[in-house]
């Protein structure tokens, strides 16, 4: 069985819609800016990646809009885009053969905050009944399932930034049974006072008020990360069944997946962080699952924490796998901020687009790599070249590690010649 991505739907700070977003990435257009969704003057975070052009009334039916949080609104619209991209009409397929598996990080934070404010300021009679479901981690999965009549196995993965890969990896395994397709990926929207303060407890958010300096992973000036909202929803199908229904050619195959957990809490010392990290093992598991050797990987989409210690640990893992400066590395999330449950799903979508157009997108704003970061970070301008294999890395706060391998096309790849490998190594 080959799992193929046939549809992509994106709602990101630097673009709504696949092509709009991709054009922004290739042009280096950032979606980071001062927080406008609330008055952040008294908060430790001043910059975020907001999907400023998104308004629920323009994309989500009114009945659904009042019942759900912005996090779900973004997913509902991204799912519509993904289904249209896959030329898929769910009503024409057996409802129990379609599933939904999304990632969630904080759930309906803003909806919950507003309901609590009503409770304390006006009394319990002013709290809507939708509070019981809109905040819930599985709300997006449930609403997508109901809206599109997808009644197969459904679920939600809660592993923060790693969640997108975990959800897609789970979706791939579901295709081995009766399920023919899965609506998967993730979004997030925690840019409200409660959501931002909850994230700030990890001590890793950047306090810089300058959008050009606030999120600089792997750079000597790295000082934390910028939160963002949005993400991507994907249609992942069994390739044979997708072809049978006349689906368009897929973007890429989901060929390998691996996950590990850093169970031991460490200090902020580099030595202890290096010893505890199992990110490299997650990548090795994904490549083994895909039948892929390190020399076959054309690009790595990095997790890019923005925390100097975590960045060095990731750079160590990449260098251990591919050698110093041995493979091109990119991190388009520098232009969106870290989207929690939506981040890794958006990276998968971006990697698929990079494969389609044979272009590795460049990161913006990075000038000097931090000492010890021996990686070939693609900066300045995008780097052209055929991409047959991509490795995507993700780490969630609390110790979650995930890795995923994408292959171009839907057929198993032939092993490369030594001459091809030497182009990159």
Largest sheet: 12 strands, mixed
CATH topology of the largest domain: Peroxisomal Thiolase, Chain A, domain 1
Compute the number of strand runs.
16
CATH architecture of the largest domain: 3-Layer(aba) Sandwich
Fill in the keyword field for this structure:
about 425 residues, alpha/beta, Peroxisomal Thiolase, Chain A, domain 1, 2 domains, 12-stranded mixed beta sheet, two-stranded antiparallel sheet, 15 helices, about 20% strand, globular, Act minimal PKS chain-length factor (CLF/KS beta), 3-oxoacyl-[acyl-carrier-protein] synthase activity, Beta-ketoacyl_synthase, PKS_Beta-ketoAc_synthase_dom
Write the layout of secondary structure elements.
Blueprint: E1 3-12, E2 15-16, H1 18-27, E3 32-34, E4 47-49, H2 56-59, H3 62-65, H4 70-85, E5 98-103, H5 109-122, H6 131-134, H7 139-148, E6 154-157, H8 163-174, E7 181-188, H9 193-200, E8 230-238, H10 239-244, E9 252-261, H11 270-276, H12 279-290, E10 299-301, H13 308-322, E11 328-330, H14 343-357, E12 359-360, E13 376-377, E14 383-384, E15 389-396, E16 400-408, H15 418-422
Parallel strand pairs: 5-6, 5-7, 10-11, 10-15, 11-13
Antiparallel strand pairs: 1-2, 1-8, 1-9, 3-4, 7-8, 9-16, 12-14, 15-16
Pfam families: ketoacyl-synt, Ketoacyl-synt_C
Organism: Amycolatopsis echigonensis
GO biological process, one term: fatty acid biosynthetic process
């Amino acid at each position: 069985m080959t799992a193929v991505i046939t549809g992509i739907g994106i709602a990101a700070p630097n673009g709504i819609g696949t092509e709009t977003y991709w054009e922004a990435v290739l042009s280096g257009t950032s979606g980071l800016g001062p927080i406008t969704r609330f008055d952040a003057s008294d908060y430790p975070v001043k910059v975020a990646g907001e999907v400023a052009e998104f308004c629920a009334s323009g994309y989500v039916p009114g009945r659904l809009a009042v019942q759900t949080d912005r996090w779900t609104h973004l997913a509902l619209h991204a799912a519509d885009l993904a289904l249209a991209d896959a030329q898929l009409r769910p009503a024409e397929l057996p409802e129990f053969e379609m599933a939904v598996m999304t990632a969630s990080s904080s759930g309906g934070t803003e909806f919950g905050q507003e309901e609590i404010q009503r409770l304390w300021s006006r009394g319990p009679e002013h709290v809507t009944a939708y509070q019981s479901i809109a905040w819930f981690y599985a709300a997006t999965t449930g609403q997508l399932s109901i809206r599109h009549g997808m009644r197969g196995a459904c679920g939600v993965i809660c592993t923060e930034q790693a969640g997108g890969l975990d959800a897609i990896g789970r979706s791939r395994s579901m295709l081995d049974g009766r399920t023919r397709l899965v609506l998967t990926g993730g979004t997030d929207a925690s840019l409200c006072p409660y959501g931002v303060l909850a994230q700030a407890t990890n001590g890793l958010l950047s306090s810089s008020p300058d959008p050009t300096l606030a999120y600089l992973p792997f750079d000597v000036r790295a000082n934390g990360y910028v939160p963002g909202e949005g993400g991507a929803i994907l249609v992942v199908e069994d390739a044979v069944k997708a072809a049978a229904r006349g689906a368009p050619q897929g973007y890429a195959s989901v060929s390998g997946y691996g996950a590990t957990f850093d169970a031991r809490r460490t200090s902020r010392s580099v030595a202890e962080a290096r010893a505890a990290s199992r990110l490299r093992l997650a990548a090795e598991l994904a490549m083994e699952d895909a039948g892929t050797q390190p020399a076959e990987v054309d690009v790595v989409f990095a997790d890019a924490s923005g925390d100097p210690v975590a960045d060095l640990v990731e750079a160590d893992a990449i260098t251990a796998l591919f050698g110093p400066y041995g493979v091109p590395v990119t991190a388009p999330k520098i232009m969106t901020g870290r989207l929690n449950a939506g981040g890794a799903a958006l990276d998968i979508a971006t990697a698929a687009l990079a494969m389609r157009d044979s272009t590795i997108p460049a990161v913006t704003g990075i000038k000097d790599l931090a000492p010890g970061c021996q990686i070939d970070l693609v900066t300045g301008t995008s780097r052209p070249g055929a991409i047959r294999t991509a490795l995507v890395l993700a780490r969630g706060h609390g110790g979650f590690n995930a890795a995923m391998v994408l292959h171009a096309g839907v057929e198993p790849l032939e092993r490369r010649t030594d001459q091809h490998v030497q182009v990159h190594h």
